[in-house]
Structure formats: C-alpha cells, structure tokens
Amino acid sequence: MTATLVGLADIQAAAERIRGLIVRTPLVPLPAGGLDPAMAVKCEHLQPMGAFKMRGACNFLALLTPESRAAGVITYSSGNHGQAVALAAQRLGLPSVIVMPETAPRVKVDGVRRYGGEVIFAGTTSIDRKVRAEAEAAARGLTIVPPFDHPWIIAGAGTCGLEILEQCPDVTTVYVPVSGGGLLAGVATAIKALKPGVRTIGVEPSGAPKITASRAAGHPVRLEKTASIADGLLALQPGTLTFAHIQAFVDDIVTVEEEEIVEAMRWLHTNGNIVAEPSGAASVAAVLKSGAAGPRTVAVISGGNVSPEDHARYVGR
Question: Whole-angstrom Cα distance, residue 167 to residue 183?
C-alpha cells in the first residue's frame, strides 16, 4: 500500500495551529573569520525546551480530542521528544508520561521532570521504550505520541521548513540532522512544495547510518546497533512514513564522523557563541565537510540540550 504523504496544506495548517506555542527561531548568518557568512544556521536549539521536537509535539497534542486530552499522553524518547511532549502537555493542561532509556543524558531527564512529565526508564533501545509505552498506554488509557512516524508529527516539523524559506528566500541548500526522519521529512516536504530547486540533504552519524542503508535497499532497514556521541540520532531504523517522504523529497544523505561533529560544536561556539548538542551540530559538520558552504546554505541546529560539563569537554578537546 502506498503511503499517503503529508502535503503543504497540512504543514501550513500546523503552522497556524502551533503559533504561540513554539518559537519562530532565528536564522543567523555566521562568518568564519571574514565578512562573508560561511553559512546560515536555523536555531531550533532556541525552542522553549531546546529542540525542534516542540513543533511536532504541539501539533499532535493540539489535534487530540477533549477526551484524549483529559486522559493524558505517553511517549518513548531518548530525550528531546520526551521533553517536548512534557512541555507541550504542560502548556495545554494535559498529564504526560515519558518512557526514556536507562542511558538517557541527565540533562534531558531533568528537563522532562521540570516540565511536569512522569519519567519511566526502560532498557536502552527504542524498541524497549516503545514496548513499555504501549503497555502503559493500554493499562492507563493514555494516547501514544509517536516520536517521528506520524503525519501530525511530520507536519509540525515541516513548519521549520516554511520558516527557512521565509527567512532566506534565496536559499540553495538545506542540511538537516536525521534520526527517525520526522524533521527531515517535514522540512523537505515544505521546501520541495514551495521551491523545488532547493536541495535538501539529510545528515547522520557514520555510526548510525540507518537512512543510508535504507536508501541503498529501497525500503526501511533496521540496523543491529548504532553508536555515536549524537545521542538524538541513534534510531535503529527510519519510520515507514518518514522514509516515504525522504524517498520522495530528499536529494541526498551524507554521514559525518565523530570528530567532525565535535569540530562543528567547537566552530559554532567560536563563530556564533552557540551551544549545540552533538545531534544538533551534525548538520553544520556536514556543511564544513562539504567545502560548499556559503551564505545561501542553511544548516538546521536541531537541538542544544547538552550539559555544560559535556559541552566544555567536547569544545575543549
């Protein structure tokens, strides 16, 4: 069965729906020693909970029935999606439960609790978290908020793409970090609908190349394991729906090495006083690696939830 893809109208409707719940993040040109910008960065780390995930979470929760809202929501997340659901739920007056890996960074666990979310730990993989979330949802009557593979999540994430085109009308290339594929799917869908000539490129760590493997196979592929300092990009496989969007609208997928991610974090700190988590800096790493940087190239900084100690350790290497 062919997947029904999210359309431009869905993304535009999401933009109106979540207005006031999310931040219209700035697009900042960054110089690198000279006057001309090396690239522009879309600062999704400035969302209220520090990552783009706020867009999809707000759109999903806003579309729930009053009955579902009253019962509450649950999700499974390595960190940023969980924080987004917890904060969106808090703002809309819903109870929330977040199933997180036992290895989740403390800064992200603390974030969920700060926003009123109940934390449950389950294993170390997305499958562990998903199974526990499904069991809790069934037992407690909660609605599951998928981390990426849902049209409402994709449409919410796609609002980032609308903003990029409005803020940089002459953009030629957009680099987007990719894990399960929600952000990349949404951004690419918006961009191709409005400006088909703009290239959209997904970026993943070399230790977690699920999109690269899936593109080579022509269908979603599940990796046996993933490993990277970019803890937000460690999904073992893309979603069925997100992958359909990626196949339809994404021009290329590239990988970056661990040290390239660290160098990008250092570059952002030096040239823009920007604190990005490793996952968020992956797009910048790809631009720096490409040798094709310029003022019409945009890199999405997807998140900035990294502890001061870890950031100092990476940047000070």
Answer: 18
